[in-house]
Amino acid sequence: MDKSIFKAYDIRGIFPEQLDGKIAEKIGQSIAQNTKAKKIVVGMDMRTSSPEIQDGLIKGITSQGTDVVKIGLVSTPMLYFASWKLDVDAGVMITASHNTAEWNGLKLCKKNAVPIGEGDGMEEIRDLALKGEFETRETVGKIETNETLKSECLDYIASFFKSGIGKKKIVIDFANSVGSLDKELFERFAGDIQATYLFEELDGSFPNHEANPLKLETLKSLQEKVVAEQADFGISYDGDADRVGFVDEKGAIVPMDFTIALLAKEVLKKYPGGKILMDIRSSNAVKEVIEEAGGTVGRCRVGHSLIKRQMRAEGAVFAGELSGHYFFEENSKAEMTTLAVVTLINLLNETGQTMSELCQDLRRYHHSGEINSDVEDKAGMMQKLKELYKDGKLDELDGIRIDFADWWFNVRPSNTEPKLRLNLEANSQQLMEQKQDELLAIIRG
């Protein structure tokens, strides 16, 4: 078994070289033995390799005497929903998220969508699987099938839609992913939502484009369709539908940190004064808008399992990450992308503003976006930056973030590559470009 398939937040490898049914069986044994779960819910995405991995995984889990609830073809948010809705102790989603067709993987959680990742059980599961020595059980776990979970999840999300206050025209790019399972929800509200769909057919080969809204080139078809249809906004799902990106009515891409602020404004109507966590790379404008809406703001590290842990520790009711993960109290502090869509529709209807008008209020500063640089000695370079910019306010929550009166920067090391990731923001375009060039000259040497 290739040790490298065990990542910080999930298990991911190329099928069948790194991950196949037999390897999934060992991982299933390891998950059952490590978690001591009596019952585990298992779902999968639409990749052609998912059924084989599902069969191996379930065989491994049940061999340890643990029961399995199969919920079949679902999105990752549906699996998280199942982890708190059903009487189970853990959950496994078979998916490689936004990765291309040759990949597959496993996302793990305990009951109530509590993540299993680095520092939360992943290392122990990895070591058990690599060792391959498992306890022998006299009885094999039972397998039951739940065919109502998907509709229950959609019923739940639909309950948050505020009907009868406006009609919105939207375009949704499902990227041939399991996100299209949520199409039924939009059709329920035909009187309030007029939806046009792109690439709605389930196809794990991703024939139209990579299912990754972070790659701006994947949004081109959506941008063109929104303008052609004169829609109010557009939506782009990733491969397992736990991330979502947006474009406004003009076809312009909505920065994902802006979406944190827009969603938070609506969330705070339900939770006045609530704690909101924003990705440390987010614009200062996000913090300001959330505070203007009456919220309390905290910064969080990058990584969904780390964010969920911090939400629980600090009692946060909502959090967002620049990669398009949005975490809702309503899904046990886990992602629920279609609830994000519904929440934005509610906000647009209640304010009467367009998406571009809502975003304009957040265009207070000038942001560089994330810039990657190859650096062998990542720790040494970050120490050098700390010394060179010691006059600023240092925050070491995730890498280093140093704030000055009119600009700030964050430098984070990659977990898997010899790279440093730079994000920078300033009060003016000129200052942003000047500081960006200055920092890149140091980082790239």
Notes on the structure:
Helices cover 35% and strands 23% of the residues. The chain has helices at residues 21-35, 50-63, 76-85, 122-131, 149-158, 183-188, 220-229, 256-270, 284-292, 304-314, 337-351, 355-360, 378-388, 429-443; strands at residues 11-14, 39-44, 67-73, 90-94, 103-110, 143-145, 168-173, 193-198, 233-237, 244-247, 253-254, 275-279, 296-300, 318-320, 326-328, 334-335, 366-367, 371-374, 393-395, 400-403, 407-413, 419-426. A hairpin with a 4-residue loop joins strand 19 (393-395) and strand 20. The chain folds into four domains: 3-150, 3-Layer(aba) Sandwich (Alpha-D-Glucose-1,6-Bisphosphate, Chain A, domain 3); 169-252, Alpha-D-Glucose-1,6-Bisphosphate, Chain A, domain 3, CATH 3.40.120.10; 256-360, Alpha-D-Glucose-1,6-Bisphosphate, subunit A, domain 3 (Alpha-D-Glucose-1,6-Bisphosphate, Chain A, domain 3), CATH 3.40.120; 366-443, Alpha-D-phosphohexomutase, C-terminal domain (TATA-Binding Protein), CATH 3.30.310.50. Helix 1 packs across helix 2 (50-63), helix 8 (256-270) packs parallel to helix 9 and helix 8 (256-270) packs across helix 11 (337-351). The strands form four sheets. A six-stranded mixed beta sheet has the order 1-5-4-2-3-6, sandwiched between helices. Strands 17, 18, 19, 20, 21 and 22 form a six-stranded antiparallel beta sheet that branches. By secondary structure, it is an alpha/beta fold.
Blueprint (SSEs and pairs):
Blueprint: E1 11-14, H1 21-35, E2 39-44, H2 50-63, E3 67-73, H3 76-85, E4 90-94, E5 103-110, H4 122-131, E6 143-145, H5 149-158, E7 168-173, H6 183-188, E8 193-198, H7 220-229, E9 233-237, E10 244-247, E11 253-254, H8 256-270, E12 275-279, H9 284-292, E13 296-300, H10 304-314, E14 318-320, E15 326-328, E16 334-335, H11 337-351, H12 355-360, E17 366-367, E18 371-374, H13 378-388, E19 393-395, E20 400-403, E21 407-413, E22 419-426, H14 429-443
Helix pairs in contact: 1-2, 1-4, 8-9, 8-11
